[in-house]
Amino acid sequence: MKSLKKATLTIAVFLFVLISPAWGKVYIDLAAPASKKVPIGVQEFKDLSGAPSAKDKAERDKLKKELFDAVVTDLKFSGFFSVIDSKANLEDPASSGITAAETDFKSWRAIGADALVKGGFLVEGDRLTVEVRFFDTATERQVLGKRLVGSMRNPRRIIHFFSDSLYEELTGNKGVFTTKVLFVSNSGGNKEIYIADYDGRNSMKLTRNRSINLSPQWSPDGKKMLYVSYKKGTPAMYLLDLTTGRDEQLSSKSGINISGRFSPDGNKVALTLSGEKSPELSILDLNTKEYKKLTDNHGIDVSPAWSPDGSKLAYVSDGSGNPHIYVLDLLTKNTKRITFNGKYNSSPAWSPDGRQIAFARSDSGKFNIWTIRPDGTGLAQLTFEGDNRNPSWSPDGRYIVYSSAARGSASLKIMRSDGAEIMKLNTGIGGERAPAWSPYLK
Amino acid sequence: MNGIFVRILPVVFLGTALFVTGCQKRVSTEDLAGQADSTQAQSNVAGTEVVPEGGAVGEGGVVTAEDIKGNSDARLGGSYASLTPGGDELTKKAVEKGQLFTIYFEYDKYTIRDIDMENLTKNAKWLGLNGSIKVRIEGHADERGETEYNLALGDKRARSVMKYLQDMGIQVQRLDVVSYGEEKPAMDGQGEDAWSKNRRAEFVIIAN
Amino acid sequence: MRSGQMKSEMKGFGKTLAGSAIFHALLFTLAFFVFGTESGRVFISPVYTVDLVPGPKGKDAGAARPEPAPAVKEQAPLPEAKQEAPAVKQSAPTVKIKEKPASIDNALKAISEKVQKRNDEEAVSSSIDDIRKRVEAKKEANAKLSKLREELSTSESRPAPTEAAMRAAKPGNAPARAGSTGGSLESKYPAYYGIIRDRVQQNWIYPPGTRESKTSVIISLKIARSGKILDASVEKSSGNTVFDESLLSAVWKASPFPPLPVEFEGNYLETGIRFCPGCQL
Fold first, then answer.
1. pLDDT at C19
2. Rounded to an integer, what distance in angstroms lies between the CA atom of residue C179 and that of residue C164?
């Protein structure tokens, strides 16, 4: 009896101690740094053609830097690796090779690297061959090795190809390292449309009409861009073929032809046209060139976003008095309002898996990015400061790119779909807005 | 007793030795495989992948229709004389003379306010008197909302003004409508002072 | 007399020695059985033939395919081998450990035969320690990489928060007090939670020598609606003030935090940041 009492008391005390500190408060648990990320070393790329001539040296050094930087950017972006500062690298690239047999793995383990990337390149005129190898330093084995041939004009692209393969190797999912982002910038005095790599590099101007250009959107095959332009005086919709440069007018009805979005099957474009009563949603069939009106009311209906299966459209309407988001079922024609809070809810973007809609909401003037499920439940705030708008999902649904303005200057940022801050895109352009993340390209 | 011990000991020791060497053996097997693998892996780089030319716009930049035509300044295009507010001479004069008034709106609204009614009526009267004049009503919004929504808002404002003029007897052929959303503010900056000046419908003479 | 005494002492000593040796051997063998099974070591060798010539067959052929990442495929053979073990029992050149030999003589014979065979077949000699170390390191690395792969294949957008949420949810949620969210911060505002965590994490510099510490420190934190810190203090010390201070200063460095979530009710958010580096997360 006595021992039983003792036992119960001990258990009780034990449980009490276990439970009590946690009463009433939730703790944020910090993980040991890099406990989830694999420390990885990256070695300077090796010029496989031997020693360059004096006049080539500068160019080759620049190439080395570019390749190295692209590798580090991709590794960091994947979220799996913490890249060890190359200043700590012990192995001399000049005297070591890039294969497992020619690598002193001990020296990499010594600096704490669990994984290693090495590479080499060969320049033949405009042709650039890059060899990249990913090693497991503990087993001293190569996990992935690729040799890729590309152009000297875009060495980063070659690395991104490798990163896609590596990502797929490690996760079984497609990487987004070769995807791109469209955006608008008025840094040249007026709004023109640009394109850049997913990390903001290699930016290029796509429109040059010195007018007002807005709302770039991708076709599902990644080959065309839909956009609105005032180049002929009124807001009309155009289609730019990104592979040929051919520019075609798609919709120029009287009034506004705006907020066009390709349907997932690529055959239709949902857009807003001036209606008799109010701006209305319409669908333009790209094959028949016929318009079909979807809404007919006294409210403003804009910014349609297709669900990935093409059966629904989320859009913005001021029918309730101020802008809110609605979901229109294209089959049943039923409309359901899904936002009820905030003063201004806008730019819905459907996630690739169809489970969430990201949008921008303003409560007191500044916008933030929120997500909500298509049925209206699961409202969640993702950003908390600055003025954040125009969310656009990466094709794998892991990330969201959006425009973020603070103190007058606007830039593009990428966050994880759960709100974790990832990075700011350095395009070198400035004043960037209205981003649109491409589908998988290649 | 001793004998048994003597005989068991070697058995036991050998047995343990066996296990130990056994495990090591497996270890070395794997090791060999590992090394062999890395030599094999060497060759998996042999299959070279060619990175295709940049999908988007090649790498040489896109050539737009505008560039080819050489007529790249849209500001001079067509009957849309000006992209800057009140940039047209005729309109300037009319505004100066108090003949054409800009109509202003409340935040997120497109209904004509009572205070603007007088001005709008004056516009209608002036147009009535000058039957040959054609105007373009340009609708604008302040910069607070979203781009696409503001384009639609500007459109509603312009049309709301147009409807009023039509009701006042002005023929529809003389009225043109365009929305600029938040793209062409009359006054830059933030705060209600600037915003209130941007929520407007402007009249621009396009023919006479 | 003396020799007799010595003899008997020797005898006694011999007994103890023998007894001790047997005990140790048994323990050793037992250990191999127990730990062997846990770590996936196979006692009964699946049919690996060891060729000296590079390019071994068997399991290795699979890994030598031009397909990349032998490391990935490497994991597979180990558990598979485990399952193969009972089947392999029937095939020839293996030691039937579980079967007891009819007599000690037979056992001795079988064992010495096996040892002979092994000695014949063994080709590469490497230091035992070296190999053991490599196996350990490899296991660890493979474990890390495979853990990563596991996480990646199962997790979607909320890896860490879900784990922490499960832990946090267990003690139960207290009713919300004025200004605090009780147990709901992480489940209601996961993005905000994540941002605080990430920012403090990024600003935290470990004091040297504390990496493996198993004691935890808790900083209690009060955040105003604007994101500014109203109060931050050590709620539970780790016992090492330098360690405590390092986390506290990380919290300050990470501030001001973003404004509290719009839908959060109350004038301030009360929470705690806990860290235990040597604890499993």
1. 78
2. 22
pLDDT value of position C272: 86
CB-CB under 8 Å, A231 with B77: yes
DSSP A20: G
Count Cβ atoms below 10 Å from residue B194 Cβ, excluding itself. 15
Do B100 and B55 share a domain, yes or no?
no
Is there a domain that residue B78 lies in? no
**How confident is the model at residue C239, as a pLDDT?**
85
What number does CATH give the domain A13-171? 3.40.50.10070
What is the distance between the alpha carbons of residues A395 and A181, in angstroms, rounded to a whole number? 11
Q: Among all residues of chain C, which has the CA nearest to that of A21?
A: C171
The alpha carbon of residue A121 is apart from the nearest alpha carbon of chain C, in Å, by 20
C70–B36: do the CB atoms touch at under 8 Å?
no
Query: Which residues in chain A are contacts of B63 at CB distance < 8 A?
Result: 245
Residue B191 is assigned to a structural domain of this protein = yes
Give Cα separations from A421 to A30, A411, C203 (angstroms).
Answer: 16, 14, 15
Mean pLDDT along residues B85-98? 65
Provide the residue range defining the domain that includes B178.
88-207
Query: Model confidence at C159, in pLDDT bands (50, 70, 90)?
Result: very low
Residue B80 forms part of a structural domain: no
Across-strand partners of A121?
Answer: A47, A130
CB-based contact, A380 to chain C, within 8 Å: yes
Burial A191-211 (b: 16+ CB within 10 A, else e): bbbbbbbbbbbbbbbbbbbbb
> Using CA atoms, how far apart are residues A440 and A401, in angstroms rounded to an integer?
15
pLDDT for B45: 52
Listed by number, the residues of chain C in 254-273 with a beta carbon closer than 8 Å to a beta carbon of chain A are 258-263, 270-273
* CATH class of the domain whose range is A180-437: mainly beta
By residue count, chain B amounts to 208
Report which of A204, A222, A98 is spatially closest to residue A153, judged by C-alpha positions.
Answer: A204
Chain C partners within 8 Å of A30 (Cβ)? 197, 200-201, 204, 247, 273-275
Chain-chain contact of B45 with A133 (C-beta, under 8 angstroms): yes
pLDDT digits (tens, 9 = 90+) for B41-85: 333 455 677 777 655 554 444 444 444 333 334 333 333 434 444
What is residue B48's DSSP assignment?
A: E
Q: Which residues in chain C are closer than 8 Å to A115, comparing Cβ atoms? A: 145
Give C126-154 pLDDT, tens digit per residue.
Answer: 345 555 555 665 565 555 566 565 555 54
Whose tokens are 């990563």? That residue is: C148
Amino acid at A252: S
Q: Which residues of chain A have pLDDT under 50?
A: 17-24, 33-35
- Whether chain B has a CB inside 8 Å of the CB on A365: the answer is yes
Contact between chains at B31 and C50 (C-beta distance less than 8 A): no
A180-437 and A13-171 share a CATH fold: no
- pLDDT at position A424 is 94
Question: How big, in percent rounded to 5, are the helix, strand and coil portions of chain B?
Answer: 50, 15, 35
Asked if the model's pLDDT at residue C181 lies above 90, the reply is no
Q: What share of chain C is helix, strand, coil (3-state, %, to 5)?
A: 55, 10, 40
Q: Where are the domains of chain A?
A: 13-171, 180-437
